[in-house]
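Field: COMPLEX_INPUT
Field: COMPONENT_COUNT = two
Field: RESIDUE_TOTAL = 754
Field: MODE = joint
Values follow.
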Amino acid sequence: MSKKKALSLLLSALLFVLVLAGCSGSGDDNESTEGGKNAGDKKTVKFMHLWPEGSSAQHHKIVSDIVADFEAEHKDVTVDVEVLSNEQYKDKIKVLSTSNELPDVGMTWAAGYLAPYVSGNKFASLNDILDSGLGNEFVAGTTDAYAIDGQTYGLPLELNIVSVYYNKKIFDDNGLDVPKTYDEFKEVVKTLKSNGVAPIALGNKDRWTGSMWYMYFADRIGGGELLTKAINREESFESPALVQAAEEIQNLVDMDAFVKGFNGLSDEEAKSMFMNEQAAMYLIATWDLPNYTTNEDVPQSFRDSVGYFPFPTVDGNGDVNSFVGGPGVGLFVSEDSDVKAEAKEFASFFVKQWGARAVTDVGVIPATKVDPNELDLPQMYEDVLNDLNNATNLTLYADVQMSSDTAQVHLDQIQALFGKDASPEEFVKAHEEALSKE
Amino acid sequence: MKVKKIRGHSRKDVLLLNDMGLNVMNKVMSNKWIIAIYTLPALLLIGVLIFIPLVLTGYYGLMDWDGIGDMSFIGLENYKNAIVDGKFWSSAWHSTLLAFFSTLSLAIYLMISMILASKLKGADFLRKIYLIPMLLSSVAIAQLWIKVFNPTNGMLNYVLMKLGIENPPAWLAEPSFVLFAIFIPILWQYAGFYILIYYAALKNIPESIIEAAKIDGASPLQIAYRIKLPLIKGIVKVTIVLAIVGSLKYFDLIYVMTGGGPNGASEVMASYMYKLAFASNDFGYGSAIGFLLLIITLIVTVIIRKLTATKDEIQY
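Field: COMPLEX_OUTPUT
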């Protein structure tokens, strides 16, 4: 027995030493950064982003280049970069924000994600740098998604629009043309189904994927503004068009339009079905463009066989130039930053440098204006950039527009609607209740 | 007699040294202060890492807090909401189901361990095989079983279709199947752990008792049921508590495999708590659910201990 005790004592002593070592280690870190700040006039801007070298090598490289350029131009400023992957980043930002230790510049998402940080007074308003010229660099309306009560708190880096991507080869084999109307679309689904091809890849475990289908039906049936108005409480969510949109979703489910077990599949799994030519169509945003154009890991024959078309009109209603989409990540500047001026300078420098390089090097459509004719881009990029230029309306993703509470209700209801756990009436009622509670 | 050398000492020396060490040890251990000092680091760690966060969670549960901005005190509002929250109760029901099945599965583990412990050829090898899933992380297990359950390309449905079942279910997408589907990897994941415990306990039973039973004409079934089982009762009780408490706070595999979906059909208490705190930004309510989870687990543990309490300790 006492041998065991001795062992446990030894172990606890070891743990204690480890803890001490851990403490002293972080102590050193603090000293070094403080030292950096105190050392004369050299200032440190802390910057956190979410593109690790392993999973997003191209993004990572551009960021490093921009940081190096900035430091070269501003001799008195060092940029201290910390990188985390997406989910870890989200968790860490939250923890840092509760302990008032946000980095000077970091990444945020639009609307609903941003709101608690703004009401908690964590993010600085960026109106000053936008008004002094930077605002003109952005595609009109993209910064609105980061604005609350007239103040803008984020500088968007990406802009995505959602379209239906399809496999031209499968369409040809089955003698199908690109559908322009929803009736034609349903015919395509029926033909594919009767020929034993899964028509649409959908990974609705992630739920925002199904939400995009619903949003397009709402847009085409009720017009581009209806869903946004219903979320802003200018309209009821129980309006007939939103009910009809939900009915159309269930019609598609009844037709077996989506791959089997879509409610249990992640978007990644659905994507791999589309990319392995097991499904003919896939509704996704332009962040996937590299997979269909430049990504060398994807076989050339597949990349050549992918095309896209705008979501069709429904019963003659809707405008194919009205899109679901919106900005992705954006930069924020911390309200409590000690080096706010330098942080803002860095953020605006970053945005300007990012634009052209993002689209050529990474294949990200930036939120800043890009002239497709000036750059050498794959045809699909030129088409998408032209679509953006012709867009009449851009509806921001519903779950981003909503507050995070309501977004969860929306996302769960999307799964219920697709899984036929909820009728269209129950679906809109649950939304109306959640939205009116706010 | 050949004396083995251990690091330059003869075995005899080592034994002697050990004895001296024990004497010193006993002397040290009789001083209460020294015991206190030695246990202090562990106590501090447990205090800082477990008890203080527990109290804080209970405190946050009294707040209206989005986890970012300012908190405001709202008393027991969060707990009141939880009591009328259908989603909380359905997640609690799913956790209970999980606990129930985990307890049932102990019988399977016990059976396997008895077979393994009965001098089966290759038992050692089999025991190691059973232990492998325990060495994998839950996330890896979840990814593996997501592939097995894939409705179109998965191994399970492939086999079912070969067996002539025309339209096998999409396991993780059907609200009525999903919880059972997830239970299979959980059963598989913990097999090694419980078999290890039972196996060790069974190996501890003195051979003489089994021999005596055999001489008295007991059948193998009787030996298992009337002799081995009562002798390892203490261990069985511990594993029941472990299985139930572990199921009640189960999180990782479910979170990765379904995220609690579809539409909450596989939501358990811990995943619901996580969703509220981190996805809905409702830290106050999430903390309240977390605290309720703690209380429920405590009550259940006490009840099981009471139900299975016996006075007599087994001495061989």
